[in-house]
Amino acid sequence: MTNPPATHRTVIVGAGIAGVSAAAALRSSDYEGDIDLLGAEAELPYRRPPVSKEIVRGEKTADEIRIKKQQWYDEQSINLHTGVTVSSIDTEAHVVRLVDGKPLHYDQLLLATGGRARNPWNAPGVRTLRDLSDVPSLQTELTGGHVIIVGAGLIGSEIAASARGLGSEVTLLETASLPLPRLLPPELGELYVELHKSEGTDLHTGVAVSAVEPDGVQTIVRAVDGRTWSAPVVVVAVGMEPNVELAAEAGIDTAPPEQGGGIIVDAHGRTSVPGIYAAGDVANQPNGVLGGRHRVEHWQGAQNHGTAVGKVMAGGDDPFVEVPWCWSDQYGFTLQVAGWPEASHELVVRGSLADRDFVAYLLGDGVVRGVVSIGRPKDVRVARAWIAAGERLDAVLEGGPTT
Ligand SMILES: Cc1cc2nc3c(=O)[nH]c(=O)nc-3n(C[C@H](O)[C@H](O)[C@H](O)COP(=O)(O)OP(=O)(O)OC[C@H]3O[C@@H](n4cnc5c(N)ncnc54)[C@H](O)[C@@H]3O)c2cc1C
Question: Is the pLDDT assigned to residue 402 strictly greater than 50?
Answer without folding.
Answer: no
